[in-house]
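Budget justification, computational time. The allocation requested in the original proposal was used primarily to generate structure tokens for proteins on the priority list. As evidence of use, we reproduce two of the resulting records. The first is shown immediately below.
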Amino acid sequence: MKNPVMIFGANNMGRAARDIFDSNEIMIYGFLDDDAKLHGTEMDEISVLGATYDDGFLKYIGKKCEAFVAIDDNKYRKSIVKMLNERRKVMPVNAIHQASVIANTAYIGHGNFINMGARVADNAKVGNHCILNTNSVVDYSAELGDFVQLGAGSVINTGVHVGNEVFIGSGVTIVSGIKIGKGARIGAGSVVIADVEAGKTVFGNPAQVVER
């Protein structure tokens, strides 16, 4: 990547994304954030330029700079991605830390956040706009859909299939071959030994459905 990056989200994830791009010696053009109180300030010596919908800065994306969406709220994240697709005809770039390990045969989509120590093994697949936090593991032949969030230290074992928009907390273990349905939520520290239906929340060891 030759162009600098505009980061959407002047927040803790934005700061982590800046560190990832720094680890790859990629310049940051600036931050965009919808909190007007941040406009004109700096975060880690990088300027918060304006709002995420400001055409004065959006016009540079796809020409002079790339975009990365550092927002962990999936609804908000999806709206920014949609705006970039429609108004700038671009997909966000990946933020992949230099200290992560990605197998040569792994597939990585667009707009993913892959932090230090994360590992994606042989023939694994990570879709688009996923968040893989520190020391998380996607083992060989496992598959993550789009907008999946994987907490620090969680392990997705071989052959697991995780649907779109699934949230997996920190320290979760999902045993081999399990299927996790779209929009499911897995509580921190859980051990998942059975399939989880779409939209369900599970927690515990072994993980059980939590009724809401």
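The second record produced under the same allocation is shown here.
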Amino acid sequence: MTPGARPTRLTIVEDHVLFAESVATNLAAEGYLVKRINLADSRATLASVLASVLRSVPRVVLLDLDLGRIGDGIRLVSPLAGSGVSVVVLTDGLSRGTWGECLRRGAKAVVPTTGCLEDVLAAVGRIRDGLPAMPAAERAELVQAALHDREECRALRARLARLTPRETEILGALMDGAQVRDIARRCVVSEATVRTQVKSILAKLEVRSQVAAVGAASRVGWHPPGADWNRAS
């Protein structure tokens, strides 16, 4: 930090306590004013976490995407960025498309927590110094990956919409872990009939297996209308 400059205010939203403490200690040693948001409160929600962060008036927020029972941290990126906060997303995985979606929503950088702590400190330091938090080419590539994922999901939802009511019911049953024989018994039809309907589902979704069909539906958060198969059985 430049001598005489006001210290940069930074807030950490991270539910991995040891990692958060390590980051906070190192940033404080670098001269940052660090605040950690308490995520252990059983009453905490995404809305309350957002309010707490904004009350801390940070210039930079380190945001974990996986906030456990509180929810998906990606939903905080847009409101934080919209308030003028520089958001650095911390993640221990997820797809490059998800990273790009964070950037598309206004995050300054995405930093894997599986890497070195120095990477986090470097990203924050670049923001403090008024520099780009990550290379422009890498940022553009990740945003493009996000746009590609969004288009794939849009196409997948359109294919799911082509399922008949019975195919919708069967896919829902497969998502609940039911086997073909269970579905046949429940629907009072032959297993051959169910297998034919499953083949139709795979063809409409343009996948090769039941596992792939379930994965595709889960990817876009699709759920069949009506009762859960297991509860209704």
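A brief technical remark on that second record: The chain has a mean pLDDT of 90.
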